[in-house]
Specification:
Layout lengths: L5 H15 L3 H4 L2 H16 L5 H20 L1
Helix pairs in contact: 1-3, 1-4, 3-4
Length: 71
């Protein structure tokens, strides 16, 4: 497993907070946040560590969550 540096972790935290603001319940429930965080961590471990790249991953994960909940 690749260890993530402090900057990458900070970027992931910023993106997670930003994306989850759009969720109900003041930033989303634990399971939704966890799902997005896991997707972010997977992407970062594969080398996707830029703010823009992580934001795309998080927004796709959010879209996936919304699709699951509407189905």
């Amino acid at each position: 497993m690749i260890k993530l540096d402090d900057r990458t972790i900070a970027n992931m935290d910023v993106i997670l907070e930003d994306v989850c603001r759009g969720l109900s319940r003041h930033g989303g429930d634990h399971e939704s946040r966890k799902f997005i965080a896991i997707k972010l961590a997977q992407a970062a471990r594969k080398g996707n560590v830029t703010l823009g790249g992580l934001e795309i991953v998080a927004r796709r994960a959010l879209g996936e969550l919304k699709q699951r909940k509407s189905a």
